[in-house]
Amino acid sequence: MTSICAWCKNELTQEEGETSVLPFFGMCGNCREMFFPRTGAPKFRRALDRLDVPVLAMDDDTKIVIANDAACHLFGKEREEIERKRSGDLFACTNTWLPGGCGKAPGCTNCGLREVVKDTYTTGKGHESVHATVTCGSPGRSHKLELLLSTMKAGELVVVKMVPI
User: Which of 3, 78, 93, 137 could connect to 142 by a Cys-Cys bridge, CB 3.0–4.6 Å?
Assistant: First the structure.
């Protein structure tokens, strides 16, 4: 079977396919160089900005470390309004209004985004197109945001590609 790059969707060479994290999904050499640069964070940020899909790099508690341009556009916010915030604060998740806020409220244990990020962070295994629903808004005035999430571990961060559905 043919393997494709989970990020750019190009077909992988046989060697790249053998190192795939997920069955039939891996990372091509070009994307690997973009995501795992040898020259540090500024190049990593520029690489994420070249992607036309929303991408967030998060820590193990879903705190956003880097947001690419497409993510800023999706949320209608500047980078400074996104980075260093927890994901629930960005999405205006209804749990952020509860005691403890994002990550500490009782409903956070069922958060699909938190689950997939934690799993990738803990196991190092990426996920491809995992369906997640985030309930956004204030109590009594909420709506659901449906996303497909793909993740990969990059050092001490989890890179999350989000596709609204």
Answer: 137
